[in-house]
Specification:
Layout (H helix, E strand, L loop, with lengths): L5 E7 L3 H15 L5 E7 L6 H8 L6 E5 L6 H11 L4 E4 L11 H9 L5 E8 L6 H18 L11 E4 H5 L11 H7 L3 E7 L13 H20 L10
Parallel strand pairs: 1-2, 1-4, 2-3, 5-7
Antiparallel strand pairs: 4-6, 5-6
Helix pairs in contact: 1-2, 5-8
């Protein structure tokens, strides 16, 4: 079996009503554009998300399904999806349908014209479709993160990203790492760019986060990532 050029990794937890519409949107956006696969990672959903995904495999040959036997969180789901992926480049989407798969070709175009040292193309939600409190909390968190990490990224929490698989797998792994990919990529010596993308209201299901739990874990994570950046040492090598 030949390897695809691109793997689209989608972590999900209790998103049964969003699975089928998003899978079909991904195939509509990418068929004829790139040789791709779709890797869904079900984080031990308590609804019938897994059953919906299993039934979709019969009609969507590009679809693969990974299942967590215990709930492990979004970062672990993303990492396990990337580890299972066969493509050299990875596109990620949140499973709630708020990211638009039609933006993936835009990221591919950005990559095609970019310098080889750019390993991450991060989505930037310029027109957020969340509640006012969620937008305010995100703006506050982004400002603090930018001040502490200096990652020059206006929207590190956007779920749609395109990155090189090998570069991602070299990054330090920890819970919630998916929120700090630009800073971690830069720590590893690579460059990143932000690309404006579409953002949509959630059409089904409920958010798995609230502003308080995001803030509580974010404080500890920020301190940890800042420590990692301070302790980083990059040495380029050459063979003679």
């Amino acid at each position: 079996m030949s390897k695809p050029q691109l793997s689209v990794v989608v972590p999900v937890f209790n998103e049964r009503d969003n699975v089928a519409p998003l899978v079909h949107e991904i195939t509509a956006a990418l068929r004829g554009v790139a040789d791709f696969e779709i890797v869904y990672v079900d984080d031990h959903s308590r609804d019938d998300t897994l059953a919906v995904l299993s039934s979709l495999k019969d009609e969507v040959p590009e679809l693969r399904v990974i299942h967590h036997v215990s709930q492990s969180g979004q970062s672990t789901a993303v990492r396990n999806g990337v580890r299972a992926a066969r493509g050299q480049w990875i596109a990620t989407l949140d499973g709630d349908g708020q990211n638009d798969p039609a933006d993936i070709p835009k990221l591919l175009v950005e990559r095609a014209g970019a310098a080889p040292e750019i390993k991450l193309f991060a989505g930037w939600r310029v027109n957020r479709q969340d509640s006012g409190s969620k937008r305010w909390a995100s703006k506050w968190a982004n400002a603090i993160r930018a001040r502490m990490l200096r990652d020059d990224t206006p929207d590190t929490g956007c779920g749609i990203k395109l990155f090189e698989r090998a570069a991602f797998l070299e990054l330090p792994y920890f819970d919630h790492m998916h929120r700090y990919l630009p800073a971690l990529m830069q720590r590893a010596g690579w460059k990143t760019v932000s690309v404006p993308v579409n953002h949509r209201p959630r059409s089904a299901g409920v958010s798995k986060y609230n502003n308080l739990n995001r803030a509580l874990v974010g404080i500890a994570d920020l301190r940890g990532v800042a420590w990692l950046i301070r302790r980083a040492k990059i040495t380029r090598t050459e063979e003679i």
